[in-house]
Amino acid sequence: MRPVGILGGTFDPIHFGHLRLAEELAQQLDLAEVRFIPSGRPWHRDAPGATPEQRLEMVRLAIAGNPRFHLDGREASSGAPGYTVETLAKLRQELGAAQPLCLLLGADAFLGLATWHHWRELFKLAHIAVAQRPGFPLQAAQMGDELRAEAESRMSSDPRDLQATPCGKVLACPIPPLDISATSIRSAVKAGKSPRYLLPDAVVDYIQTHHLYR
Ligand code: ATP
54: domain CATH number? Predict the structure, then answer.
């Protein structure tokens, strides 16, 4: 069964780093679909510059026209912080025990995984595919002891492993490095500079129209 990919994020705003990650991993892992799940009110960082509704809308604009990409608004539309482990548990219920699920993470997110709520449960719910990200070398030395032990015992280099079992594998995936972050886009807009070509034009237009990140 082809895995369903899950890409969570603040998406404040969504940019080509996110979109290229999703496209690369959809191809490399032969994903049936990628679900973009914008976070609600995040527990681990400052309030985003755009509202959940605005972040949802920017994702909607960015993925329009890609039949493999879908928007899942469940976290953004709930007022709660939204823990990934809870979202995955709901998806597991909806999609059934046999459906392979694959959480897509950039290297920075993966390296911080051991700080996530009930993080070890994640491996019982989904596989994890980790994409390279400039500035965050994916090396054992960068991981804490607990994450390293967990990752090493689960590491696979064959995408077919993700189809053979519903959850539990970790796969590192090389992707073309794009040194783009939402933080740098917000800073550029705040400084009156153009963020064009770092994110889709439709999202640039939305940011301008709604006076975001000023
Ligand atoms: P911010 O700068 O506000 O922290 P961000 O650009 O890191 O935001 P998020 O929405 O926090 O974006 O990221 C969602 C997911 O996408 C995370 O797993 C993150 O690692 C990944 N990601 C974001 N940008 C890139 C990139 N340029 N290359 C690879 N992965 C990325």
Answer: 3.40.50.620
Domain span including residue 164:
4-179
**Number of domains composing the chain:** 1
Buried b / exposed e across 144-158, counting CB within 10 Å, b at 16+?
Answer: eeebeebbeebebee
CA 163 to chain centroid, in Å, comes to: 20
pTM of the model: 0.96
Ligand 1: residues with CB < 6 A are 9-12, 17-18, 21, 105-106, 108-109, 131, 133, 178, 180-183
User: So what's the ipTM on this one?
Assistant: 0.98
Task: Over range 150-169, report the average pLDDT.
Answer: 96
Whether 212 is covered by a domain: the verdict is no
The verdict on residue 110 lying in a domain is yes
User: Would you state the pLDDT for residue 82?
Assistant: 81
CA of 82 to the centre of ligand 1 (A): 17
pLDDT digits (tens, 9 = 90+) for 104-142: 999 999 999 999 999 999 999 999 999 999 889 888 888
- Answer whether 34's CB lies under 8 Å from 5's CB: yes
Is the pLDDT reported for residue 47 higher than 80?
Answer: no
Q: Which of 181, 170, 191, 186 is nearest to 50 (CA)?
A: 186
Ligand 1 pocket: which of 108, 187, 189, 203 to mutate (most atoms <8 Å of CB)? 108
In a domain, 186, yes or no: no
Nearest CA to ligand 1 atom 6: 181
